[in-house]
Amino acid sequence: MRVIVADDSVLFREGLARVLEGAGFEVVGQASNIDELDRILAREDAAAVILDIRMPPTQTDEGLVAAKRIRRTHPKMGVLLLSQYVESHHALDLLAESPNHVGYLLKDRVADIGEFLDAVRRVGNGGSAVDPQVVSQLLGRKRSRDLVDQLTDREKKVLGLIAEGRSNEAIASTLKISPKTLEAHIGTIYSKLGLEPAVSDHRRVLAVLNYLRSA
Amino acid sequence: MTTVQRRVIQAGALSTIALACFFEVKFKTLDGRIVPQLAQEWYRVLIDLVPGSSFVLAGLVAWSRRPLNRVGLLMIGVGVGLLTRNPELQHGIGEIAYPLEVALHFISPLWAVAFLHLLLAFPAGRLVSRLDRDIVRSFYALVPLAGVLAVVIGHYPLLGAIGQPVFETKGPADYVYLACLLVGSGLVIRRWFLGGRARRRSITPLFGPMVPITIFFLLSLAYFLGARVTPIPLGGLKSILGDLATAFPLLLVALPVGVLVGLLRSELDMSSVGDLVVKLSGGLAPERLRPALAQALHDPSLEVAYWLPAQEWFADLEGRRIELPTDDSERAVSILGDASSPIAALVYDSSLVHEGQLVDAAAAAVRMALENARLQVQLRAQLEDVRESRARLVEAADSERQRVERDLHDGAQQQLVTLLLSMQMTKAEAMRHADPETAAMVEANIGALRQALDELRELGRGIHPTILTQAGLVPAIMSLAERSPIPVEVTGELGDDRFAPAIEAALYFVVSEAITNAVKHSQARRLCVSIDRRPVLAIVEVSDDGVGGAEPSLGSGLRGLTDRVAAVGGRLTVKSDHAGGTTIHAEVPCG
């Protein structure tokens, strides 16, 4: 899978590139600012862009603005945003436009190499990756808490993993349960929360997040 | 002007009346008795004698009461001109001294220009605008020219003979007379309609008489034009108009009376200063000082400007700077107090300039009150200074916090994340080399590093939440609510409105501190944050169902919040009793 890495710290960029290349990804470009990223995008085709939310010159939200722009100009390219702080506001903002080809993770997650590479693959293949902290924050909302309290602990875990954008196979193997048991859990969760069963993994992420947002 | 000169002018003016009377009266012998008889029909005598004398007499009175005001002299001039404009009288004088008759021919038409001058100069006695000065000067220059022209082209005598309609023009000088009346009445009426209350009030004595004068004048003009232009006989109407036109100068009598009343009225107005003194004795708040002065001086546009010695400028009651008008024809200024240390300045309509005594009296009456008000203004200006500097301090502190957070983010946090990554790679390497001991050691360090990163992140958030600058108050408050250990319900909407950074920061830290306090001390089970946007006010309120007893004067957190909110012009109130529950309410004015 071809990826582009954009971050203003050269050490972090190099480290990330090494991790990615070690796992068989092809890093086709490294950018230290948005202008460089645009030049690489004009030149190279890639399945995903990994970029920091705070980039020069103002170090506020240049990366976020660029991510939204790239998603419009390159709808088939995955955009994985990294940030030192994750905010549900930004996550919902990104997913509201389209729940596909997008990820939003805490920067520390790069150190959970397996999980991180999985997220890059998901985003590159059109899926989504939402940081567990965003999910737990949304679940922490007052009214979400009241609603989610109807669920068993196991069901809560399943809901959280769904909201992070994981597939059924991934969830089943994480929780070490059979796909059949998982489907039974999902059925219970949906009926308890009054959610319409969603066909694809992508659509159910948005459905769950929207449910938590509006709760 | 010396006393001798004054006496000469007074004597000259009075003897002109006597002279005019003398030449109107002939003495005849009837049945052996000598009886006085008018030289002409009585009404013809009246037409010049009455208005002329009234102008002279009113002018003399005005001049003696207001020696510095030129209005009196102008009235005398108009009167003398009216009295001596009669050609038969001039002829009579000519029989005694011919050069005098010739001189009168040229000079007496000046009365019309003096009349225009009077209209424009009233009540101040001087021509205020440049336009007025230009108009009057050109007319003065025109009269002798017209006289010469009349002699040259053979119109002689110059003026309409007594008994003939005024507009039966005999020569160019009459056109001057016509033009003066038209221009003068036009300008007075225009000034009345365009002027403010004080100006209107000041020219009322002119405007009153000028309305009938102008109407009669226009009727006469209609008669004149009708007689000249239309061949159709106007019959009875023509004769009525003719009579009106003939009697026209009699109407002028109203004018000197009006002018005199207007000029002396400020004496009557001194009683309004008396009222002012009465009001002051009852104690007058600085806010009511200006209206009281405006009323006493009959000028609603009056402004009071207080001198601030520290700033060396004049300011209004709120401490805002006021520029005094400089050499403005519409506004006049009186500065109270010494030139070196003024107390205040009164800025008023320039039509009050001639009422200098009235302004001085009113100013003297309010001097003490003005001094008090000035001290108050000074205090307010200082308060405003302090408020501004406090706001600047908070802003500086906010941008410093932002800078520190950014340094933390770009420095320590970034380096630690990079270190975390490389330690993970080391661990993977150790595993690959089948070195589980090293891998376990690295893993332990990774754990410690993650914790350090989490703590650093919380520290950064506490210093300055980037979501606040990125997305605004509501997302930042939502983020606080989501991370709170106690459930927080957020209600109310601000929409996408953004406020000034200082306001957003103040309100954010109110909510943040309130949630922290509730978590630490209140034993609350739930919290409620409401956000409200009024037209000029942003309001946040945080309430809990805890044990209460929060004391704003004790906790340095609440104290700091109160100061922070006050720095952006807002107010923080804490309601917390031991019966339970604490409500922290902050409201901040916003554009």
What key attributes describe this structure?
heterodimer, A: alpha/beta, Rossmann fold, Arc Repressor Mutant, subunit A, 6-stranded parallel sheet, 11 helices, B: 591 residues, alpha+beta, Rhopdopsin 7-helix transmembrane proteins, Heat Shock Protein 90, 5-stranded mixed sheet, 18 helices, 12 strands, 12% strand, rod-shaped
CATH superfamily of the largest domain in chain A: Response regulator
What is the end-to-end distance of chain A?
A: 38 Å
Which pair of chains forms the biggest interface, and how many residues does each contribute? A-B, 32 and 38 residues
Number of strands of chain B: 12
Percentage of residues in helical conformation of chain A: 55-70%
State the order of secondary-structure elements of chain B, H for helix, E for strand: HEEHHHHHHHHHHHEEEEEHHHHEHEEHEE
Order of helices and strands of chain A: EHEHEHEHEHEHHHHHH
Over all CA atoms, what is the radius of gyration of chain B? 43 Å
* Average predicted local confidence, pLDDT of chain A: 89
User: How would you describe the oligomerization state of the chains in this entry?
Assistant: heterodimer
Uncertain segments of chain A are: none
Please give the CATH class of the largest domain in chain A: Alpha Beta
Low-confidence stretches of chain B: 155-169
Q: What is the CATH third-level topology name of the largest domain in chain B?
A: Rhopdopsin 7-helix transmembrane proteins
The helicity of chain B comes to 55-70%
Helices of chain B, by number, come to 18
* Anisotropy-based shape of chain B: rod-shaped
Q: What structural category characterises the helix and strand content of chain A?
A: alpha/beta
- Given the structure, what is the number of helices of chain A? 11
Could you please describe the fold and organization of this structure?
The complex is a heterodimer of chains A (215) and B (591). Chain A has 2 domains: 129 residues, 3-Layer(aba) Sandwich (Rossmann fold), CATH 3.40.50; 79 residues, Arc Repressor Mutant, subunit A (Orthogonal Bundle). Chain A has 11 helices and 6 strands. Helix content of chain A is 56%, strand content 14%. In chain A, strands 2-1-3-4-5-6 form a 6-stranded parallel sheet, sandwiched between helices. Chain B is of the alpha+beta class and 591 residues long. Chain B contains 18 helices and 12 strands. In chain B, the strands form 3 sheets. Chain B has a 5-stranded antiparallel sheet with strand order 5-4-3-7-6. In chain B, a hairpin with a 5-residue loop joins strand 11 and strand 12. At the A-B interface, helix 1, helix 4 and helix 7 of A face helix 13, helix 14, helix 15, helix 16 and strand 8 of B.
